[in-house]
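Field reference: "sequence" (input) and "structure" (output). Example, Serine/threonine protein kinase:
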Amino acid sequence: MITKNINGLSFELKQDFDFTFLSEYGNVFSVFDKQDSGYLCFGVQNNNKKLFIKMAGAETIRSNVGTDVAITRLKSTVLIYEDLRHPILIEMIEHKEIEKGYLTVFEWFEGECMGKQYNSFDKFLTLPLDKKLSNYQDILLFHSHVNKCGYIALDFYDGSIMYDFITEQTRICDVWNFTVKNQ
């Protein structure tokens, strides 16, 4: 195991990886390394603009897939994000190859991931019913859009949803498990 430190933030990998590409986007202020997808994600700020970077290629501790599979999966999401553009879907602004990997760059959303592995899951459960129903309506609205675009969500899960507890806005942040119908 390797412990990496970027801008004072530590995380562990199975093997070392070069993250110098991140400096092109600004200073890392957050690391999201608890995914089992093989992705490693970063919150980055530059010139008063925050970005969310999702990358594949580094061997993460919790990954249940190899780096080649993670890279292929991340690349496959690019067209889906472009096809499914919607106010509830986090906006992808760039994607590209990096040395030994691939990355996608998104507009930052101030929400928290609803995945069970995060503290926000329990926080969400304590919300009043009307707030939960509003979140659910947003998710249904997005899935209606997905259907109209000819896609279907094969494995939509809590880790695909973000919620901002202050503005009460919902965003979908992961579409790797969406596919074109009748494929």
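The mean pLDDT is 91.
The helical segments are 67-83, 120-125, 129-148.
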